[in-house]
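Record pair follows.
FIRST:
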Amino acid sequence: MSVRHSSTEASMSEYDVKKEKETTQDVVAKEDIAAASYVSGQYSIPNCIHVLRNLKQNGRLYGKRFSYALELIKDSKNRVIVISLKDCFSELEDWIDYKFNK
């Protein structure tokens, strides 16, 4: 006895495969964007280092805390925070202290 699949079931499986492929493509696209922003985007490591150096020059970040902040910006989420707080030195310093003392 053969089992017949409805056209809706067949469409659903084609949709699921297509959806999976799109998801894979989306992931690759996101990785490409992240790789580009790592070096040259708004949230790039060089931009974050510039912000951290400004904090250091203003006497708000020094020693191990500065080194720790450099380690923090390896993570793209942390780079977004650093750039978002670049004009708020005290808040950026508080966030770095929070992460440092965690």
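SECOND:
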Amino acid sequence: MKKLLTLALALSIIGCTTTQPTIQIGQSVTKSTQTQILYYWVHPQNPVQMLSVVSGEFYWEDGCIYLLQNGKKFTAQFPELPKDSVVWNEQRRTLALKNANNLSETVEFQMGDMIHTNGYYSAYMAEKIANTDEQGRKCLSPDGMANIGTVSIEKL
């Protein structure tokens, strides 16, 4: 009986102990990157967009969206209006663009997808960016801006 009591006591003590998690030296913590969407200004009462053509491949790097075309990397900008016409999904890294002429029509792009739509290319000019801040400035490409429109969106 004494042996049984000793065994039961030993099992209960061992079974109730916990071990602390060990910290691995050199184990890195991944910092979450928040992607910056840049917008260009459009007039609130008459939100027209340029009808010339922009095309290229969407590319994401370090929290910034670019449009690759002919060996150049342009910073992607989208129309500020209508509101919520550009939706970025951080986890899936997808970009959903609503057609400005039919807001119920949405085209979703993954990074690496090709787009052909209205818009224009321009050199970087701070006054042309509706929401520039320190995060947005780090996304500026020396190749310039791709002002991507949402009137005639085609996914290639």
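COMMENT: The two ends are 81 Å apart (CA to CA).
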